[in-house]
Amino acid sequence: MNSALSEIEKSAQQLSALDREQLARRLFESVHGKELTDVDEAWLAVAEERLNAYNRGQDRGMTETDFFNRVQSDLGWK
User: Fold this and answer.
1) Structural domain tally of the chain?
2) Which letter does DSSP use for residue 75 in this model?
3) Distances 9 to 12, 20, 65, 75, 77 between C-alpha atoms, Å
4) What is the residue range of 54's domain?
5) Which of 16, 55, 62 is nearest to 24 (CA)?
6) How far from the centroid of its chain's Cα atoms is residue 45's Cα?
7) Cα–Cα distance between 7 and 31 in angstroms, integer?
8) Given this model, what pLDDT does residue 1 score?
9) Residue 31 CB-half CA count within 13 A
10) Are 36 and 25 in contact, with CB atoms under 8 Å apart?
11) What is the C-alpha separation between 29 and 33, in angstroms, rounded?
12) What pTM, to 2 d.p., does this model score?
């Protein structure tokens, strides 16, 4: 990552959660050339709530190994 991008990221981290979400949406749209769908919006809301719970210590998350084991099991691969 170049230094200009690092500075932009550092500045963006100082924004409120709502402002970061709006910035992320605009960046996504600029890269993909389309607006987020309702499904995209719903997944973003779920992901943000999970991240907030993790940051508050209310959710411990899971290890990479546990994650992939669960995915494989849910897909019937294991």
Assistant:
1) 1
2) T
3) 5, 10, 29, 36, 39
4) 3-74
5) 16
6) 9
7) 20
8) 65
9) 7
10) yes
11) 5
12) 0.48
Q: φ, ψ for residue 60 (rounded to 5)? A: -85, -10
pLDDT of residue 42: 92
- Least Cα distance to 24 among 7, 41, 2 occurs for 41
- Locate all alpha helices (DSSP H) within the chain, ordered by sequence: 3-13, 17-32, 38-55, 64-74
Angle, alpha carbons 12-15-19 (nearest 5°): 100
- 14-61-42-76 Cα dihedral, nearest 10 degrees: 150
DSSP 37: P
pLDDT average, residue stretch 47-60: 91
What average pLDDT does the chain have? 89
